[in-house]
Amino acid sequence: MLISSMIRTSSRALSFVLAFLVFCFIFIKSIFNTNLNEALEQVFTNLGPIFLFLLLALIFITVYCWLKQIEFADEQNQRQVWTEAALQSADSISTLALTCTLLGISLGIGTLAEEQLTPETVQLVVKNLTKHFSLAFMTTVVGLPCSALLRSIVQITEAKFEAKNKYATEPQRETDYEIPTI
Q1: DSSP of 12-67
Q2: pTM of the model
Q3: For the purposes of burial, counting CB atoms within 10 Å of the CB of 68, is it exposed (0-12), middle (13-18) or buried (19 or more)?
Q4: What is the pLDDT of residues 78-117, one digit of tens each?
């Protein structure tokens, strides 16, 4: 039962992530207004394969935990663990984005330290600097909204379950009541 539940939830989470990727490809294609191969090459150049792999892994983990949160809708103790795991995973996406931002800035500054800045080399130095700064800022531009979106989904889902449980445990209120007058 446990393994079949893990497989079922994993396949559902993978389906959500793949659907997310399809929407991302459509969005990327419309932004770059080129064919998909050129657009993906630009994305891999700006973000880097390591960041993309870690981002997708964290998105998968967050979606997996969110689906488990939904699965345990009526068992608050179990649901709370999965909710917290989903929130931590979503927070890890913003940590990853900011870490890669600092990495890109550090690499850019390192480029300045290694190069001799002369009128002949200034264009090459600026080119390398902007390449690293592009990595720095694009990881933030991609990672922070992903993190915020996933956190919102998890928190709204939890609020829905809390409201449902609170309503189910409250005694029925009288529908006829007096409105206080001043």
Answers
A1: HHHHHHHHHHHHHHHHHHHHHTS-HHHHHHHHHHHH-HHHHHHHHHHHHHHHHHHH
A2: 0.82
A3: buried
A4: 999 999 999 999 999 999 999 999 988 888 888 777 777 7
